[in-house]
UniProtKB/TrEMBL annotation:
The lineage of its organism: Eukaryota, Fungi, Fungi incertae sedis, Zoopagomycota, Kickxellomycotina. The keyword tRNA processing does not apply. It holds the Pfam family Gpi16. This is Subunit of the glycosylphosphatidylinositol transamidase complex-like protein. It comes from Coemansia asiatica. It comes from the Eukaryota. Keywords: Membrane, Transmembrane, Transmembrane helix. One of its GO terms (cellular component) is GPI-anchor transamidase complex. The chain crosses the membrane at residues 582-603. One of its GO terms (biological process) is attachment of GPI anchor to protein.
C-alpha cells in the first residue's frame, strides 16, 4: 500500500481525458493491494495470524453467557530495518503503542455489572471488576516507567475513547506479590495497575474496539456484535490483552524462527463477555443464535485462520444443539460442541450456518435437573464498609473457602489517600467448620475460630495527593472456612475542587482482589474428574479452560491462577455546603446594593437651601431656588 501512494499522486496530475483510465487503474490497484494484504498467504508470509472464537454457555438460572475472543499473533522483528513497522492483520496502533512505551504485557478491561459466581460459576476472564482496570508491565528504570505509564494511559484513552487519562499517581498501584504470572523469566519490566471504578461502558468504547478487527462487524463472528443486544444485558465485560511471549511457548504454526530460541511473538487478544436473558427478548423453549443476537453470520471472515463457535452443555441439562457439530470434546467438565464456521454450510450452500439450541421442559428432566451444577469457585470474596459518621470507619472483607483442602491465596486491597488506613488495627479471624461440613445439625458440625497470621505481607502507606495505600497478604485458608479481615481508617478532608459533581453520593472505592492457584487443571486431571470425581479435586476455572483450549496454555504445568474480585463500596466523605457560596454571594450583593445606592446618592447629589417667596399678583407663595 505504501508503494501505491506515489503512483496515485502522479495520477491526480493527469489531464481530464485520462480521468476514466485513472479511475479504472486506481480501483484495480487498490483491489489487488487489499486482496493481497487480506489474504491468508500474505499474512502467513508476514508472520501474522488471526483467529476468532465464540463460546456460548447456558447458565443455571436460564441466562446465557457469550464470550467473544479475537486473537492476533505477530512475530517480533529483531532487526532495525523497518520491518517492525509493517502491519497486515495486527492492529497498527496497538503495535506502535507497545513499541513506543516499551510494553511487555498489557491488560485493559471495561466491566459493567457484577459477576454472580453463585449462579454463574467461574467467569470467562480473570478481570471482571466493575469499572475500568488497566495493568501493564513496562521496561526501564523507575522514572522511565512512570513517564511511560502516563503516556500509555493517555494513548489508550484516545484509542478506546475512555477516561483512562484520569489514571495518575493517586490511583496507581505497584503490586509486588499479586499478578505473579506476569513476572516471567526474561521480563525485567515493572508492573503498574490503575483502576477507575466510576468508568461506564458505552457504545463509544465498543466502536473503536470493533474497528480493530480485520472483518470488523461485516463478516465472521464479529457480525454478531449487535450493540442493541450487547448492552441489554445483566453483565458486560470488554477488554484486551497484549503480551510478548516466546515463539516456543505460543501455538504459532510458523517455523521460520524455530532455530532461534529467543524469538518472540506479540499476542494481542480482544475479548467480550456478556450475560443475556433470552426471556427478555421473548425467546422461550428453543431459540437460535441469530434470534438471540438479532443478526446472523452471513459468511466467515476470509482472513481468519480459525473461526469457531463452541457451545458448552452441562451433562443432564436437557439441552440439545443443532445442527451436528464439527467436533466434540470436554471443556471445564462440560460437553463442548465445536462448529467450524470456515467449513460450516447452510441449506443454500453458503459458508456459514445458524446454530439452534433447544431446551427440554423442566418437567421432563426429572432428577437430571438437579445435576446441573453452576461450578461455583472454590474461593469467594466479599468486602463492605463498616462504621458510621463522617470522621472514621472500617473495611471488612470475608473470604470463603468451600473446598475440602486448604488454599493458599494472595489478597490485594488498595484505598485512596483520603482514607487513612491504620495498619496496626488489621485483624484476621478464621471460622473453620469441624466435623461434617454438609451437616445441618450443630451436633454433627461445629465452628472453631482462630486467628490467622499471614505468611507474607506488604503494606505501602499512602501519601496525600501522591499515592494510595496498598496492602498485600499471603494467607492459607483452612478447608471449609470463612476468614474475616478488618481494619480501620480515618477520613481526610478534601478541597472543594477535589469532590466529584455528585459529592453527596460518595466516592466509589475499587474492589479487593483474591488470587489462588488451581491445581489439576490439565487434560489428564479433567478426564479423571469426569470419570472418577474426588472430593479434593478442584473444578477447572472457565478462564483457564478457555486459554488452554484456544491458545494451548497450562497444558504442561496443569495449573492456572484464578482471580476473584469483590464488590465496590461507597465512602461517604465530609462534604462542604456547596450552596453556601451562592448564599453568601446573594446576601452580600443585596447588602452592597442597598448600601451602595444610599452612599451613591449622598455623594453625587448637590444639596441646596430652599427659600419661600410670595407672589404679589395672586398672593400665593412659591418656593424658588436662589
Amino acid at each position: 500500500m505504501f508503494l501505491l501512494q506515489p503512483l496515485l499522486l502522479h495520477m491526480r496530475l493527469l489531464p481530464l481525458p485520462y480521468v476514466g483510465l485513472t479511475s479504472v487503474v486506481t480501483a484495480a490497484l487498490l483491489a489487488a493491494s487489499v486482496s493481497g494484504m487480506n489474504s491468508p498467504t500474505s499474512a502467513a508470509v508476514s508472520g501474522e495470524s488471526f483467529t476468532e472464537d465464540l463460546l456460548l454457555k447456558p447458565l443455571a438460572d436460564g441466562k446465557v453467557l457469550l464470550h467473544f475472543e479475537f486473537a492476533f499473533q505477530r512475530r517480533q522483528s529483531q532487526s532495525n530495518n523497518g520491518t517492525q513497522h509493517h502491519y497486515h492483520l495486527f492492529p497498527r496502533q496497538i503495535g506502535e503503542i507497545a513499541l513506543r512505551y516499551d510494553v511487555d504485557e498489557l491488560h485493559l478491561s471495561f466491566t459493567q455489572g457484577n459477576w454472580r459466581e453463585a449462579q454463574w460459576g467461574y467467569p470467562p476472564v480473570n478481570s471482571q471488576g466493575v469499572g475500568a482496570e488497566m495493568r501493564a508491565q513496562i521496561r526501564g528504570s523507575e522514572d522511565h516507567v512512570a513517564k511511560r505509564w502516563t503516556g500509555l494511559t493517555n494513548a489508550l484513552s484516545g484509542v478506546f475513547c475512555a477516561s483512562l487519562n484520569f489514571i495518575d499517581s493517586t490511583n496507581t498501584v505497584v503490586p509486588r506479590m499479586m499478578f505473579a504470572e506476569s513476572q516471567q523469566p526474561g521480563r525485567s519490566g515493572m508492573l503498574r495497575q490503575g483502576y477507575l471504578p466510576r468508568e461506564n461502558v458505552c457504545t463509544e468504547n465498543l466502536t473503536p474496539w470493533i474497528k480493530q478487527l480485520p472483518c470488523q462487524s461485516r463478516s465472521g463472528i464479529g457480525a454478531l456484535l449487535n450493540p442493541h443486544r450487547l448492552y441489554n444485558m445483566h453483565f458486560h465485560s470488554m477488554g484486551m490483552s497484549l503480551e510478548s511471549v516466546k515463539l516456543s511457548d505460543s501455538n504459532s504454526n510458523s517455523n521460520s524462527n524455530s532455530g532461534n530460541p529467543d524469538a518472540r511473538v506479540l499476542r494481542y487478544t480482544q475479548h467480550l463477555s456478556v450475560v443475556l436473558d433470552p426471556r427478555s427478548f421473548g425467546l422461550e423453549g428453543s431459540w437460535s443464535l441469530s434470534e438471540l443476537m438479532d443478526t446472523h453470520i452471513a459468511q466467515a471472515c476470509p482472513v481468519a485462520d480459525r473461526s469457531t463457535v463452541r457451545v458448552l452443555v452441562s451433562p443432564g441439562s436437557g439441552l440439545s444443539v443443532k445442527p451436528e457439530a464439527s467436533s466434540k470434546s470436554v471443556l471445564a467438565d462440560l460437553d463442548m460442541h465445536v462448529f467450524d464456521m470456515l467449513k460450516q454450510k447452510d441449506k443454500s450452500g453458503k459458508s456459514a450456518a445458524d446454530i439452534e439450541l433447544e431446551f427440554v421442559e423442566a418437567s421432563k428432566l426429572g432428577s437430571a435437573k438437579g445435576s446441573v451444577d453452576p461450578g461455583r469457585p472454590v474461593v469467594a470474596v466479599h468486602r463492605y464498609v463498616t462504621g458510621h459518621g463522617g470522621s472514621s470507619g472500617g473495611v471488612e472483607a470475608t473470604i470463603t473457602n468451600r473446598g475440602d483442602q486448604p488454599v493458599d491465596i494472595l489478597y490485594l486491597d488498595s484505598l485512596p489517600w483520603y482514607l487513612r488506613v491504620y495498619s496496626h488495627t488489621l485483624t484476621i479471624t478464621s471460622q473453620k467448620t469441624v466435623g461434617d461440613a454438609k451437616a445441618t445439625s450443630s451436633s454433627a458440625a461445629s465452628e472453631v475460630s482462630e486467628n490467622l497470621t499471614p505468611s507474607a505481607s506488604l503494606f505501602t502507606p499512602a501519601i496525600d495527593r501522591g499515592r494510595p495505600s496498598t496492602m498485600e497478604l499471603a494467607l492459607t485458608l483452612p478447608a471449609h472456612s470463612r476468614t474475616t479481615l478488618w481494619y480501620s481508617f480515618d477520613k481526610g478532608f478534601l478541597k472543594y475542587t477535589e469532590h466529584p459533581p455528585d459529592a453527596n453520593r460518595g466516592f466509589n472505592i475499587g474492589p479487593a482482589i483474591v488470587s489462588y492457584a488451581v491445581v489439576g487443571t490439565g487434560d489428564d486431571a479433567q478426564t479423571s474428574r469426569r470419570n472418577q470425581p474426588k472430593p479434593n479435586q478442584q473444578q477447572q476455572p472457565l478462564a483457564c479452560a478457555i486459554k488452554e483450549s484456544l491458545h494451548g496454555e497450562y497444558a504442561a504445568s496443569s495449573r492456572c491462577t484464578a482471580r476473584m474480585y469483590s464488590e465496590l463500596f461507597l465512602a461517604n466523605m465530609p462534604t462542604p455546603d456547596f450552596s453556601m457560596p451562592y448564599n453568601v454571594i446573594t446576601f452580600t450583593c443585596t447588602i452592597l446594593a442597598l448600601f451602595f445606592g444610599r452612599i451613591f446618592n449622598l455623594l453625587t447629589r448637590d444639596f441646596a437651601v430652599l427659600q419661600p417667596r410670595e407672589r404679589k399678583d395672586e398672593g400665593t407663595k412659591e418656593i424658588l431656588v436662589e
